[in-house]
Amino acid sequence: MIDSDRDMTRNTLAGVVFCSFVALFNANVGAQESASGIEPLSEPRLLEALPPPVSLVPDASRERVSRPGDSSMVPEGVISVRQLDALSSDSIGLLDGFTDGLPVDLWAGTSKELVDLLLPKLPRKVKSGATRDLAKRLLLSVARPPKPSLSEDVFVDMTAIVPSAIGFTPDSDVGSDASDADIDQVQMEGLALLESRLTQLAAMGDWTSVGAMIELVPDASMTDGIRILAADLALVDGRVEQVCLDASENLRFSNEPYWQKAFAFCQLRDGNVSSAFLTLDLLRETGIDDAAFFWVAELMAGNRPITPSGLTRLSPLQLAMLRHAGRPFPPQLVRNGDPTLLRVLATAEPLYVAAEDEAEDVVAERVRQGLDLRLEAAERAVELGALTPDILRALYRAEGVTDAENAKKLEQSPETVPMVDRQQNTDAAEVDLDLSSIPVATALDRARLFMLAEAQAIPTARAEVISRAIDFARNDRGRNAPDVAATGQVFAPLIMEIAPTGDLVWFAGNAARALIAAGEIDAGTTWLQLSQAYARTSIEASDVAAAMWPTERQLRPSMINRFTPLRFKRWEESRPPGLVAANKTLVLSTFAALGESITSADWMSLMDRRSSSSVAMPSPQIWSGLALAAEEGRLGETVLLALIALDEVGPSGSSPIVLARVISALMTVGLEQDARRFAVEASLIQGL
Q1: Which pairs with CB-CB distance under 8 Å and at least 24 residues apart come from 465-474?
Q2: Is the model's pTM score more than 0.85?
């Protein structure tokens, strides 16, 4: 209690002292101000002397003074403001810069009118894998759509014609409507280009990409053309029920004849022939002239109409109808080699017609012909990229199992070895194969050869069988059978199961050719390195290295040093004498286009020879346009013109002059990898 009183006393004394100090300080300040002539300000006078408060809210009543170039408080050029581009469905794609796609500005500098003109001219039946892959990258890449070319407008001074136009200012609403119309036009133009891309992919037989692209199209951008492509995809895949549902739905709001045709197909498939013929009569009355469609409709109804003259191809809908009719495809259509037709034929049951009273051997012959036709179609579909090699391999195995007679011949043939269980011990005794007597001329022969190679457990035995297939493909050059690229696609999994070892150095050349031509560059290069490693100690390895030298040099961008004449001469000695001149022309042309240092001395041995090539040249506008587009850096236009210049024959079937121009153009726009692949493919398909 005493302590508490003491604390209270101390606090009271401290307060008194502080108040006395403040009073004394104010008195001194007042005295100093009086002495200096400064009159102290009272509180009202103090507020009047202060500056007015600054308003943090802009005064709406004050008009902003506009000055030329004064659009903001930020100095001009620091921030760039522009209107966002209108979204276009043409930008849709499956590939971009991170997934091997072309740059997003690939159409920079190229007008939409030119793209619309050239895109339908792209080759469709493309056997060249390099050409096909580059075309797909062009069609599948995410890219800004090309812009329409600017039209030259003539300026008219309306004030000189209509004096009342002086001072006239268009209403802002009118300007807004015009802008919306422009955006709609851009969207329609982009959508038309998208449909053109999808149509080109479908014509090439790449229905997988068509389906993936259609999945990206928003519902608001779907058109009859895209819906029809989706229905065609379903027919190619055998999803007929889905197409029938879509046809019934689209007939409610679409006047497109396609849906009426699809509806008639569904009626015929369900056996409702009378209703189907009413639909067919309605189509005829509306002026639909489609001889191929009415022909397959009659076949589905059980009639035997005459095949229309001049029939070269069938649409997916017509193919589905012919497939359901169970009739063999016309030979002229199979020979024409439409990618979609070959795919449908390869994935269908063997089509043949046999009467009930025909002899058993006659029926068996018809079945065999149907199997051969299906295998041949599958091989050609793989060549054109319309079918995956997995399906062809499965068909090879299936034909060997289902054709009991041929399988029995294979087992009893003295020239072949019985198939070995792949799980068998790899140390089993190797059986000598008389490979030269194994036939490879027909599709069924090649199926047997594949099964024979797949059955071998010993690497050397398998390599010998595979070499037989590759040698045949190299000598045939794709004239009557799959070329080395398609053969490589089929046998690639079997080759990649074989380890590159010294005892297989004789196989290194064919293994490298097949893998590189099939697009397995890294795996093929491993076999090239094997031959180089043993070249000093093995004659076989030295021969392989010499024969593959041009391909090795075409593949490697780092080989910028000048090649030696000795290497060239060694390679020439590895070639058949009758092919040296043509092969040397091709190699020197591709070397020069790839940037190699080629002198007149290198061409000396060819100067006295006349060219016997009858290959067609591109038109002058394509030839000149390709050079101009490459020089000015228009990437998409360069690729487009390069593909058109090569046409369906691809690098291996083009003149060395054309191939060199295409390779040089691709190198100029930075597509060196594609350019080198063109050179390599041309050499390998030509048998080098």
Answers
A1: 465/433, 465/435, 466/491, 466/494, 466/495, 466/507, 466/510, 466/511, 466/514, 467/435, 467/507, 467/510, 468/435, 468/436, 468/438, 468/440, 469/440, 470/510, 470/513, 470/514, 471/510, 472/440, 474/513, 474/687
A2: no
